[in-house]
Amino acid sequence: MRLSSEVTKVAFDDSDHILTVELVNQLDGNISNLTCNHVIWTTSVGYLKENFQKIFSSEPDLIHQKQSSIENLGFGTANKVILVYDAPISFWPDNTADLHPLISVNQTKYSLNKGERAFLTEQNVDPSQAQFVLDGVLCVSPSVSMRFVIVWIVGEAALAAESFNELVLAYLCHNIFLSRYLNGAVDNQKPSRAIIFGFGFGFGLGLQLPKYDVDLFGLDLDLGFGCSGFGSYWNKNRFERGSYSYLSVRASLDDRDRLRQSYTPDGIPRVVFAGEATHSHYSSSVHGAYESGINAVQILRQYLETASDCR
């Protein structure tokens, strides 16, 4: 196992039938090589879009096999902000799973109040960008233990959110579900806002919540409202460049199949590909990524068992 090391090149030696993997240590910049018979490759499509041709530059057949599929598949970003509270979340309605904003043509835009604008000014954050992120919240999910909630931010708003530090993200997300949806009132404005509660069976029910008192949280912790938070920055991570693959308008399931196809320069599976984007049924999910890894191991296991039987 090589920690803090980046794979910068993979090459197959036709004469020795061996793979050479070039590694760069991220701590001291030292370059080293290791040899192996097989590689299981699990990086994201976002990473492959930026690095595939460079890493496998000596393998034109592999590039020809997969490059079009890498280009065709889309790769998006959904970031999460997790708010952790110092007490059970007593304000959350009983027997309720997720909260989803209902977007309507006549919906009044959420406007930042004076306190929020002052906070953003202190943090050197453009209020219009904060507004953009707030409008990009897809849903809010509570934990089973009712001690934290997860706020999902998607689309271009997820990318914009990555320019904010975690303090700003937690502040905005706390206010969005407390003031915007649970309270339903901002700066004495009381727009009509509906939400959807999911009960775990795929059903939804449009409800109008009563106004909750903001003092429920107790203004005494680091963020000033009884909770702390942290978020994900998937697109900023150059080893990820996003968080999920999807079928773009020019992609098809064939692209997932081609991406999953093993590289067999000598008839042997030398580079086996895995990751959520290679799964034909459960792409864009953790269990899809996990299952694809199991499948990749099974490919090598089956080959090694067959090769052993032939000796």
TrEMBL record:
N-terminal signal peptide: none
Keywords, in A-Z order: Cytoplasm, FAD, Flavoprotein, Oxidoreductase
Pfam families the UniProt entry points to: Amino_oxidase
Cofactor or coenzyme needed: FAD
Transferase found in the keyword field: no
GO CC annotations, alphabetized: cytoplasm
Record domain Amine oxidase: where: 2-101, 232-298
Compartment annotation: Cytoplasm
An MF annotation (GO) of this entry: polyamine oxidase activity
Domain of life of the native organism: Eukaryota
UniProt cross-references to SUPFAM superfamilies, sorted A to Z: FAD/NAD(P)-binding domain (SSF51905)
Membership in a protein family: Belongs to the flavin monoamine oxidase family.
PANTHER family per the UniProt record, alphabetical: FLAVIN MONOAMINE OXIDASE, PEROXISOMAL N(1)-ACETYL-SPERMINE_SPERMIDINE OXIDASE
The name this protein goes by in its record: Amine oxidase domain-containing protein
Organism for this UniProt entry: Rotaria magnacalcarata
Phylogenetic classification of the source organism: Eukaryota, Metazoa, Spiralia, Gnathifera, Rotifera
